[in-house]
Amino acid sequence: MRRERFMTIDLALFSSLTTHWQRLGAWAPRTRRSTPFAWALVALISVVLAGCGDGGAARTNSSEPGETAATSEPVAAGSVTFSIAASTQDAVKEIASAFQEQTGTEVSINAASSSALANQIMSGAPVDLFLSANTKWADTVAETVPVAAHRLLLKNALVMIVPKGNPAEIHSPEDLKSEKVGHLALAGEKVPAGIYSRQALSKLGVLEALNESGKVATGHDVRVTLSHVERGEAEAGIVYSTDAVLTDNVEVVYTFAPETHDAIEYPLLLLVNEEQNPAATKFFEFLASPEASATFERFGFGVVSDPEKT
């Protein structure tokens, strides 16, 4: 927009000078004596136009980061590529939108299972930030690629959900053995939600029976698990508490005790590609800000109040 404004000024000035030149040309005797004057005026127009262009550049370069001197409008401040666990995508998208509005930095979000994202990063995908749904995959990435900083950002809880109305009358993991239950939806075995779910069911002594009966229906990630139950394709499923509140078509019938599975924690990694991305560093800090924390809490996440950062 800035360049367009300066171009408008340049064209207006050019038109004015040209008109003046034409008038002078019409008045002056048409002899070779008038030629030097005409060329001098051409040179003057060129210098003025060049000066306008240089002036615009000078004004832009002298502006404070994130705004122009003339209008104080935000300007683009780089871009950030953010790979996030599927369970965090709704909250993160809102936070990224607020960050982009404040700084002009474009945030590209890639949401999937933590295991898939980790493998992408270790295979060379150019990612600036990684938010994992467990420490295992975060540690695996940190052992493979350079990490500038990390912090423990969020925590979550594990719950069992059923379709609205609970047609199979499930109230505890033991009820999953009932003949009324044809399918139990779980996330994949390498996906954090799937790992936690199997840990909890094993701790409670029902996982082996469910596997032997063929009731376990495995989805790619926790959002697929949620959709299976939401559509009535499974009589029950195990997801994070933050996923359960996203739809009115399921209800929570059981919350697993924290001691039945590993702590559900979300580490945030600031990665280093060929060189450190200043915009990524700024977004790394913003994700732990009071504004971002309030958004995470509104979506049901627990926020780590004193995160470890290195």
Describe this structure in words.
- This protein is α/β, with parallel strands linked by helices and 310 residues long.
- It folds into 3 domains: 2-61, no CATH class; 79-152 and 270-303, Periplasmic binding protein-like II (D-Maltodextrin-Binding Protein, domain 2, 3-Layer(aba) Sandwich), CATH 3.40.190.10; 158-260, 3-Layer(aba) Sandwich (D-Maltodextrin-Binding Protein, domain 2), CATH 3.40.190.10.
- Helices cover 43% and strands 19% of the residues.
- It contains 11 helices and 11 strands.
- It has helices spanning 2-27, 35-61, 89-103, 114-122, 135-142, 192-203, 207-212, 222-230, 241-244, 278-286, 290-298; strands at residues 79-85, 106-112, 129-131, 147-155, 158-163, 184-187, 216-219, 236-240, 250-255, 265-271, 302-303.
- The chain has a 6-stranded mixed beta sheet, sandwiched between helices. A 5-stranded mixed beta sheet has the order 7-6-8-5-9, with helices on both faces.
- Strand 1, helix 3 and strand 2 form a beta-alpha-beta unit.
- Helix 3 (89-103) runs antiparallel to helix 11 (290-298) and helix 4 packs parallel to helix 5 (135-142).
- The longest helix is centred in the N-terminal third of the chain and has 27 residues, at 35-61.
- The model is unreliable at 1-76 (pLDDT under 50).
Provide a short characterization of the protein structure:
The chain is built from eleven helices and eleven strands. The chain is an alpha/beta fold and 310 residues long.
Fill in the keyword field for this structure.
elongated, D-Maltodextrin-Binding Protein, domain 2, 310 residues, 5-stranded mixed sheet, 11 strands, 11 helices, alpha/beta
